[in-house]
Amino acid sequence: MKNIVLMGFMGAGKTTVGKCLAKALNCEFIDTDEQIEKEQGRKISEIFAEEGEQAFRNMETELLKCLQKNEERFVLSIGGGMPVREENRKLLRDIGTVVYLKTSKEEIIRRVSGDKSRPLLQGGALEEKVTNLMNAREGIYEETAHEVVLTDGKLPEEVVKKLLK
Ligand code: S3P
Questions:
Q1: Alpha-carbon distances of 43 from 13, 38, 68, 79, rounded to whole Å
Q2: Among 13, 14, 153, 159, which has the highest number of CB atoms less than 10 A from its own CB?
Q3: Mean pLDDT, the chain, integer
Q4: Which is nearest to 160 in space by CA: 115, 94, 99?
Q5: Which of 17, 120, 141 to mutate to test the pocket of ligand 1 (most atoms within 8 A of CB)?
Q6: How confident is the model at residue 128 (pLDDT cuts 50, 70, 90)?
Q7: Would the CB of 79 count as within 6 Å of ligand 1?
């Protein structure tokens, strides 16, 4: 079986679903945000504040190149902006089966409101920020995905069940 890559907007549940799926498949779980924070010894919000978004995007691409060489089977949850770079889209599809966890704007806004850890959603006008980013990314997610799973109104365990099928 191939690796599974979970892709989707911020708040889609990639990390929660990924952990649960990896447990069910008895394989390693890797989260790109967590991995970058561990390697850097600082939070993503600090990387954005100290070095800017592009530096973080370069770290994401470097990490994918490393993961491409990983011989163990794993479930990978990626940051929501990862597929925006064309180079990353190719790497992701090469790493494994890319599943798009698709969530409605309304549900995303409910889940991320009050969150302080995501630099791209800070500073007010949350709905406008989510709308603009979603409009820019929806097509990219659809184009990159091997499979699409709708997550609205589903518990993480229900999404995992669907993925296992
Ligand atoms: C980002 C999503 C975040 C994180 C960073 C940027 C994005 O990950 O990588 O804040 O551009 O959508 P999650 O999707 O896990 O929140």
A1: 19, 8, 24, 13
A2: 14
A3: 96
A4: 99
A5: 120
A6: very high
A7: yes
